[in-house]
Each structure stands twice: as structure tokens, then as C-alpha cells.
Amino acid sequence: MRGVCVRAAASLRNGGTVLAVAVLLAAGAATATAPAPSPVMKDNLYGTKFVDRERGFAVGAFGTILHTSDGGVTWQAQVSKTTQQLYDVDFATPDRGWAVGRSGVILTTKDGGQTWEPQVSGTENHLFSVDFADADHGVIAGDWGTILTTKDGGRTWVMRALADDIILNDVSVVDETHAWIVGELGIVLASIDGGATWKKQNTGIDKSLFGVTFIDPLRGWVVGIDALILHTIDGGLTWQVQNGTTEMRALEQVGFGQAYENPSLYTVAVVGDVGIAAGEIGAIYLSADGGKTWQRQDKSDDEEESGPKWFRAASLGPGADGAIVGAGGVRVMVVAGQVQKKASGGTRAAEAVH
User: Fold this and answer.
1) What is the reported pTM?
2) What's the mean per-residue pLDDT of the chain?
């Protein structure tokens, strides 16, 4: 059995079904004169990107692309021209962006999402993560060991696939030369030549990893199964366990208590002194010291009433304002690194195992 995929819809590769209601976590502070919040979105949301305090994007099921220009108070749908699941989105500038998804879909915009056009990926494999260093240099990671790179903003994509059949869940690109990818079975890959070649790094852990972020060529974090948060200050030569358990356990040994105490984490973001890691059963960990230490947030009253939700992706823009997306019909604002939650319906959607 393969690990739990960071993108729930990835289970479609093996015929799995994901039942979930979208979660939108919005950024920005509303004022007394702000317009009424948008209705709760009902489509699953898997990726998000905030380019500044006011402007952000979220993508998800059936080609959903949402845009906010008021810090998440209201959201408008954009025309993606596809019904395929979209698993991730990234913007190099407020106008220049990309979204990737199921069956090799790559979309790009040059006008802040007013229009989206397809790019040729050269593959039908699912694409789970995209990250750009600038408007030209980007990397995509996906199913079946898929790695794509571009040096011309996606006009051409070069396949750098691994020889192994392995799910690659997330990519972090620091600059036009340095990039990292994480995936199942504890794999961490690093490139120092813009993605032309990749070298495995040893974390000492064989558990699946779902999220990665680097803030420069030396400092980075990865998150994964059993609430794992790993940190490096030397470009991945060595890794420190900051949170979670490294013990390997069979599925039948994992009860609800263990799952609650050590929930899988699917996303991590660090900006300045603020860090956010989030995952299943509504788990959110915050850092106030630049990712040196992490504290789990207490459950809110709405979680007690409606049950825990899972979170899928997080983005922090300048000033540590941003968003998280996932499931359960919940909206969350992240303002200056502070998370405020408000229940708005939803379901206790289960994670997909494949």
C-alpha cells in the first residue's frame, strides 16, 4: 500500500474516490464597511497562492480557480477552460501565474487570471505541485516520478522524470538553480542546476513527506506523516526533527488517539518570523520564531461542534498574511501570522489512502 497522497484527488489514479467539501482559508482583515463574505465554496480546494496582502488565488476540483483582491473577504471564480482537478497554483508576479493538475494539465496567465491558457506538458501523469523562482524558471512535480522544468516561463517544458515509480508531492524553488522535491517513502530530492539533475538527500526517515518550503539555499522545512516537521540549515545535508514521531507503525496500530496526537501534515509555509504547518483533523502548528520551534493551536469552539476538518495547502504573502485551503466548509483568515477560525458547515471528510 502506498502512502497517503498529499493531494487527495491523486487517488483517482488507482480509481479511488474522495468525498470532501471545500475549505477556503482567507487572508486579510475585514473592516466594518467590507462587503459580505462570499458563499461557502463547495468544490474541493487543493492549492493556494497569495502574491501580496490583498491578492490571492485558490484552485481545486473541476477546474476551479478563485481570486480575491480584498484579502479574502470576497472571492470570484475565474474561467480555467478545463474541468480537470487543479492541484496547485503559483505566481511569480501579481500577473504571471501557473496552475497544474490532473492528466498533465498546465495552465498559465499573464494578466492576473483574467484569462488562462493551456501549456503543453508532454505527459498525461497527474501534476501535484508547481513553483517558480521568477517569470522564467519553474519546476513541476507529480505522479510516477514526474519532474518537469522550464527556463522560458513554460513555453517549453523538459521532462526530468525519475526511473522509479514514486509519488512526488511538493516542490520548492528558491532561485533559478536551487530546488527541492519531497514525496512518498521519505524521499527528498535536491537540485543545484535548475532541475536538470537531482540528488537524493538522507533525512534518516522513511515516512512519506507531503510538503516542503525553503526560504533560501540553506534553510528549509519538510512535513509529513505523524506530525513530522523536519528542518535543515545546511541545504539538506543534515535534518533536525522539530516535531512528530519517527517511529514506524502498522496501520492497525494507529488508533484515533495516536492519529489525533500526531496528525499527518500536508503543507508548510514560512515568511519572516511566522511559520504555519497544517494537515489532517484540522491540525495547525504555528511558529513565531522563524520556524525554530512550533506550537500546535488549540481546537476552536466550532471544531468541537462540527468535528475536525483537514487542511491541504497554505500560502503566506508579505507581512505573513495568507490563506490555507482544504475541506469542511471552514473559512480561516491568517493576518500577520495569527489564525482565526470560523465554522461555516461542511463534513468530516476522510483522507484517501491508495
Assistant:
1) 0.84
2) 82
